[in-house]
Structures are given as structure tokens and as C-alpha cells.
Design brief:
single chain; three-stranded antiparallel beta sheet; two-stranded antiparallel sheet; 5 strands; about 55% helix; elongated
Length: about 280
């Protein structure tokens, strides 16, 4: 029998969170949650394996992944689910409590063990007063120098959401931002979002990535997309007379054995006009 015989499902929350999903996507989502529950809260972030879990082909999985993956958190090579992880911890805590309650029946043995423990404790070496003082001082310094926990939600509202070019799926975007901030600085994410917003300016918004998809894909690492209409200017086209002039210069240099790389001949020119082949040094 499994150590976790059931998975708690909050029906109202589940229905509310999946209103945007199709029937097929909801089925795939449930299969992922159940497999993750049995696997201890994690699944490999591998397209082929996730496709097998959802009973889909890899091609079909790729077609629905963009809508399903924002419900999960990406952690290197695995995916997790925030709500499922909390429920799993609660289930394990209850299991441990039941195990502890079952151990109460052995009162006589527990009392004997306690007495033996007390007897052994009396023989333990005692800390000297100065050692205790040093340990307490070190603990106090550690508490004083501990950095405050960053407020990811406030960063999201103040720095990320206002500049991102597509305002969709804000709840999933917030979860994805908090996950991304655990291993990437605010400056890198915000700078990447600003660059992406500039690239998408004036473009069809339907092709702009959802913010959760952009964050889960670590798209701040993408190379900048070349801007259209900014190719380097081409060299001006020579007139017929200018082209004849250049051809004559090249023929004269070849006849005289002059190399363009020789600086002493850098000042020689030939002016060509109709019937005019004078050389000027």
C-alpha cells in the first residue's frame, strides 16, 4: 500500500485556475499532478517523459505545453508544483504524527529509555562559561547581519509587470517571476524584459510571449533580435565616366607594374576626358 493513499484536491480552486484550459489540457494537467504526487513532488523537465505521463505524443505535448507549464515551477532539470508541494508536506507531517502516536503504547520501554538517557546526559562534558559566551555572541552577530528576505512580489509589481509588453496571465507570471528570482538577479530579468519590449514595439501582440512563458523559458538569456530596416548602406554606384576612369587607372598600373600597396605611387592620378589620356604626377 502506498504511503500517500490519497491526494487532497480543492475542487473550487482547481476549476477556477483551469478555466482557460480545454478538456484535453485539463486531463493532461491532472495526470501530471498525480504522477508528481506519487514521485514525491518532482518530475523530470524532459519533453519525451512528460509526453508519456500525459499519454500524448511528443508533437501533441509540445502543442499544449505553453498553456500547461506556467502552472509549474522549473528548477534546473525538474518541475514542481507549489500547491502540491505544500499538500505533500502536510500529508507527510500527518503520517509522522500517526507514527508517533503509535509509539505511545510502549510506555514502559519509553520510560526506561528516558531514564537511561538522563543518566548518560549527566556524564556529558559541560561547556566552560567563556565557551558559552563566545557561542552566544556569535549567534547574536549572525542574527544581526542576516540579510532581509527580498520582496519578490513587490519587485514584480514595481519593476517587471509595468514594462513587459503583454499583460496576460498575471497570477502565473508572478509565480514564474518568484521562481526565476531564486537564481537570477532583478537587474538581469528587468533588462531582458526591457529589451524584449523594444523588440516587440509595434508588432502583432498575438505573437508576443506570455510573461510566464518568457520567464519560465529564461528568455532574458536570448540574443537580441536584429531590427528590420537597419542594414548597412551600400557603396554609391559609379557613373559611366567614373567607371571608365577607374578601369583606365587599373590598366595603367598593370602596364607600368605599379602596385596599389606601394606608397611612393600613391599620388599618381590619370584624368580621363573624351580623347584625353594625360598623366599627372
Amino acid at each position: 500500500m502506498s504511503e500517500r493513499p490519497f491526494m487532497q484536491l480543492y475542487v473550487s480552486d482547481f476549476i477556477g485556475d483551469t478555466l482557460s484550459l480545454s478538456t484535453e489540457q485539463i486531463g493532461a494537467y491532472m495526470l501530471l499532478l498525480m504522477a508528481m504526487w506519487n514521485a514525491g513532488g518532482k518530475l523530470p523537465a524532459d519533453e519525451a517523459k512528460l509526453a508519456r505521463v500525459t499519454r500524448m505524443s511528443v508533437k501533441k505535448w509540445k502543442a499544449v505545453a505553453d498553456d500547461l507549464m506556467p502552472f509549474f515551477e522549473l528548477d534546473h532539470d525538474t518541475i514542481t508544483h507549489n500547491r502540491l508541494t505544500k499538500e505533500l508536506q502536510k500529508s507527510e507531517s500527518k503520517s509522522q504524527s500517526r507514527a508517533a502516536a503509535g509509539a505511545v503504547g510502549g510506555n514502559a520501554k519509553a520510560l526506561k529509555d528516558k531514564e537511561a538517557h538522563v543518566a548518560n546526559a549527566k556524564r556529558l562534558p559541560q561547556h566552560l562559561p567563556d565557551t558559552i559566551t563566545r557561542e552566544e555572541s556569535s549567534s547574536l552577530r549572525s542574527e544581526e547581519t542576516r540579510a532581509p528576505k527580498p520582496d519578490f512580489e513587490r519587485e514584480f509589481e514595481k519593476d517587471f509587470w509595468p514594462i513587459y509588453p503583454r499583460k496576460a496571465g498575471k497570477g502565473q507570471a508572478l509565480k514564474a517571476y518568484c521562481t526565476a528570482r531564486k537564481h537570477t538577479s532583478r537587474e538581469i530579468i528587468v533588462t531582458g524584459a526591457e529589451r524584449y519590449a523594444q523588440e516587440r514595439a509595434g508588432q502583432d501582440q498575438s505573437f508576443t510571449k506570455h510573461p510566464a512563458t518568457w520567464l519560465n523559458g529564461q528568455c532574458w538569456l536570448d540574443e537580441p533580435t536584429p531590427q528590420r530596416g537597419h542594414s548597412p548602406p551600400s557603396a554609391p554606384r559609379l557613373t559611366h565616366h567614373q567607371q571608365r576612369h577607374q578601369d583606365a587607372l587599373a590598366a595603367a598600373d598593370k602596364f607600368l607594374g605599379i602596385s596599389n600597396d606601394e606608397p611612393e605611387f600613391a599620388g599618381s592620378t590619370f584624368d580621363l576626358e573624351p580623347g584625353d589620356f594625360r598623366s599627372h604626377g
